[in-house]
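User: Quick one: structure for sequence A, then sequence B.

Assistant: Sequence A:
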Amino acid sequence: IKYFEILNEPNHGLYYNAEDVKNYSNLTNCVSKDFSNIIVGATSGLEYTNGKYLSSLDFFKTLGPETYKYTNIYSYHPYDIENYKGQNTKLNRINKTHQEFFNSLGGFVKKFITEYGISSNTAVKPTAIDENIQAVKLVQQSVIMNEYDIDLAIQYLFCNTGNDQSNKSYNYGLITDKYLPKMSYFSMKEFLINTNGAEYIGTLTNIE
């Protein structure tokens, strides 16, 4: 076991006020005494605090520099199930705001994105997100993360979890639930083969 993630998406209805987040920080402190390589956050990609849902950036800001004493690995999920039209724009925006915050801590932060992706499905209206769109978007999102020097990025997820094409949650995979490759499987395969070991030095303009 290389890393220990302290809860999944704690900002999503679990730790959503200053007292709660302080408890989360205390938990991180306690765990770090027995384990190294603690990952904090794994925050859902909420951009605005609303009731019991604390935005990813507000969660990290509320943690403050104290938690930085226990770990230097921060994780977040810069996507959501509804935001398809501007998914890349959101990914770029969240990476930028989070990078600015991590720099304020001193910059010596490992940035993990433990979930990113886009679902191919027929539920999005008026235009469905077909496999071709998913294939293109995943490559674009990988390039965006390369620009921000993300230390670890995990695509959600490898295999579809169902066969209902109208269900957005089922269709994030690179392969179908019958283990057949989708277009995104081939696009990501070619992208990774052709860029393995390469360093991104460009500037993104039209990211959608």
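Sequence B:
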Amino acid sequence: PSRDEMYVLGFIAGKGTVSLAVDGQSIFLRAYLKFNKNRIWDVRGDNIRRRGEPGPEIIEYALPDVLKLTSLFQSVFQLPVVPERLDIDDQGTFRKKEIVWTIGPLNSKSGIISRLFPARPVNQDILKYPPKYLMDINMPKELAKAFLQGISDATAVIPGQESAAFGSTGRPRIQLEPDNERWYWLVPMCFLFQRVMKIRVRSIRCRLQ
């Protein structure tokens, strides 16, 4: 896979989903970008540290990146892709938002699918297990970086005052939170961070629901 394809693989693997098309032979991929707050300076309801105005909507702030991702998906998959905005929790602490891209239909003869998932049946379980080439110690560093950048962009949480309870500060770390269904992907993630990129993984915590 190319660098762009590796980035897209990581981004979709982080929180993406797969569904079968009506013909039963093709799939639709859905990539998600999730925001845990509505506006730039929103804080949790129990946070005593407040600012004045909450600022612009975070989706408006992220619009240039949303457009770049849309263009990238269209280029990699050679299909028209339109982002859709969803309000998934309008009453919660942070009034969570999502941007979702639906990509497809894609079948087993699609060049991009055969490159990303070689020798893999094309069905709704295609994202369950990571492709074996992610465990290649000789993977070029730029490809490893592209994959990790994609999955980090889709799943990273950077703790701060706005996401802490009672005004406490966030810990100085970057926390990656792939969906629970992606726990098989943690092995190649750690492998690429530590063996290829030489970046230490401090801890792994799994929460089963």
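Residues 63-77 form the longest helix (15 residues). The CA atoms of residues 194 and 200 lie 5 Å apart.

User: Thanks, that's what I needed.
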